[in-house]
Amino acid sequence: WFNGGGSSSRDEVGDKYSLKNLHELYTTLSKNQELTASNQDVLVETVRAIAEVIVYGDQHAEQLFDYFCEKNMLPLFLGLIDQPNCETRLQVQVIQSVSILVQNIRSEISLYYTLSNNHVNRLIVHPFNFANEEVLGHYISFLKTLSLKLNSKTIQFFFNDHLNTFPLFEEAIKLFDHPEGMVRTAVRTITLNVFKVQDEMMCSFLMRGPCSQYIESVVRFIHRRCRRLHLLMLRASQVGQYYQRQGKDSMSEKQLGSLLLRLEVGLSEMQDHFLYLEDILNLQVEGIEDIVIDITMAYLFLPLLIASLLPQTRPFLELDDLTDKDFAEASLDKSSVTEIDNPSAGSLLSLFLLAHSCFAFSNPKMVNRIAETLFLPAPEESAAVRRRASSASSQKQANKSLPTAVEKKVEEDEGGDETDGASSLVGDDVEEQLFDSGNPIRDALLGFLENDDERHCLGATCIIYSLINNAALDPGVLERIGLAPRRQASSEEVVYPFGIVQSLIKLLMRDPPVCTLTQRATAKLVIELTFFEGNGNTFLSEAHSKILDEAYMGAVRRFETQLDSKITEISPERFIEMFEGEWMSLCEGPLVVESLMTKSQVLIPCSTNLVTEKKLLPLDSRQPFSVLENTRCVIRSFMILRLLWVTLHGKNNSQLANLGLSTSTRKLNQKIDLSRCHHLIRVTVLSPRNGATNIQPAYMVLGGGELILAEPEVSGVGKGITRSISPLHKIKFVEGYNDPLLMYIIVRSPKTKPIGWAHRGLKPLVASSQLSMASNGLSMSGPSSPRSPIAESKAAGGVDLDTTVAQGYPWEEESPTSSTRPNDDLRDIASWCITIRFDDHGSAYWAREQLSNAIDRTVESKIKRIRKLLVSNEKT
């Protein structure tokens, strides 16, 4: 039966891909060339089947493809879609079938035939209804498939040098600004595949107009996207101002969350735009590279992003080229934009977009051009910027004059001497230009380092950091503009960036301090500019060294104040926990400045009355809202300044590292010699397992600042295996209310790092211990009761164990106004609970006494070590 079935199946496959079947399909196709309402379903299946047979024939039976060519079937496909009554499903099938043919045909001869006679170009230029998403999706996929087949041999089938037409390129770029992201991405892929083709006549055609027109359209599209981002920032300001006028201190979490999400999506889109331009530049096609650079500078950087840095200009508020749709998507009215009190939003957005571009671009010409424009502008550009600074012209006027500048630049490049991008703007008077106050762009950019709004400080810091870490930037340019990091300096005579370093260190001196994200980025840049890790030498000037000392001691004083007050307010254990938590957070990895470019948090003010920011913005990117958050910020600020201080002074940081780490010298499942342990107590660990209670004999060991529970080893007397290790300063314990022999140990530990033999939640352990005593006949030393200890405690007016845990480790923090807010920064910390039972009252009393003393000694020791660290700093 199986063999018979297999034979029948093979016969069916053979019939399907036979010449006879193809002939029948052709007959059906040719007889139904005039479309009616009744034959289109048949034609859909016929076109699909023909494509399938032809692909099979190309790979297995040449006579099938020969028959396809002989009967000239491809024009018959196209004849169907040319008819006005052709339904969508048939149009989609024709597009899909031709795409399958192009994609799957392996033979060059077969492919060339399929592409010849202008049939494919005829399909490309057909006026499809792109309002239909299904048609558009298959069409753009078809164009993308064709572009992947482009090379120096196949270009002849797409580009007509006699008629100067290139349908594939021309039709694709019409969709470059389509609302659907998938379509825009496909257009980028198509254009990149076109630019890759090395064909002199095609390149000449593109250079005569289509390429520059397309690049200009793309850059103008990016320009509009930047302005839409600015509208979203204004919308956030408008909502905040509304709530302040209404006497409210918060906007809805949904409103702010939606704005943040849209800002983040917009920033991610900007990254895609910059990377697309970078992909074009990396093709290094002669002529196209210069077009991209010139147009990007002329239509994006100069009139919008760079001009926004100047205090007298606000190009983002020139709204003539924005559509009603742009305002609607930002939930704004055009008339209300000028009333919103946020004049610095444009400059803030420009700073981060400029930094974003410096991270994205790796083309030497582009990177050098940006750096030179920011710090060493060409005479023509300087004059233009000064004119704009003195009298802000409209965006339309700027756009009219800028193409002329581009044309002039191109003419100069063609007629003048060739120079590379690294030296085109550098003359003999470089040192004079460096500190020339007549350079408004440089003055404005560096002025943002001392801006009252720390977000502007962070943006300017990111620009400088992105430039000095861009490998494509000519080191000679870095030296000439005074930004060469010491690790890149070619000589010891490099100009010391005195003003920049001073502004950065003064930023770290602010009191109240800037948010810790700004501190980390600033400290990172100071190290880049003044420290050479290769030999450990620092080039910090003596004056700046003193300022750094002052900034660091300010952080020490703030930290000491918090230490003195908070160990009594929130308990020393909690302070130590926050100290270790902040250190571990800093040790997770270095700050990746580039990652900030797609974070909406950099565009939202650090200090605001919008309380919902607390839930949506991480603590390091905003000012603290409560007492505990302020403590954590002070701790982290101290650590950041400490790391910077020891690095630039060549000192050892082991003291802070040892204090911040809470690691054990022992490991789980490691053997331990119990005979050498002085504080050794025999206990029974009770834990729930599958609805029952697991009873595990164990030893409780105190020592080395840890509580260890060890399982006795059967094979050796006085030996054990560690099953649970808990730092003593993270422990609280509660005596069983109805049974003094019971002890509940609560350990604070991350959710991802469970404690051995411990469980999340206390109630299961209480119920388990009650069940264990009942099922195993264990006597209760306290008042007998069939109810659980929790139920008994409530009935007798005793203390609820859950309440005891909450008092020891509060999940909520109190602000100075006594209002409570959830501590979202500690959401990843959990209370891990262990239940143990002692053999007798003497052991229980002695264990509680020893454990309490050990915890106190450990906490006191850690606090003393922290104070010792501060005292040593003051002596230094």
Automatic annotation (TrEMBL):
Annotated CLEC16A/TT9 C-terminal domain residues: 439-754
**Which InterPro entries does this one have?**
CLEC16A/TT9, CLEC16A/TT9_C, CLEC16A/TT9_N
Q: Per the database record, which ranges form the FPL domain? A: 48-195
Q: Name one GO biological process term.
A: regulation of autophagosome maturation
> Do you know which Pfam families this protein is assigned to?
CLEC16A_C, FPL
Q: Which family does it belong to?
A: Belongs to the CLEC16A/gop-1 family.
Q: What is this protein called?
A: FPL domain-containing protein
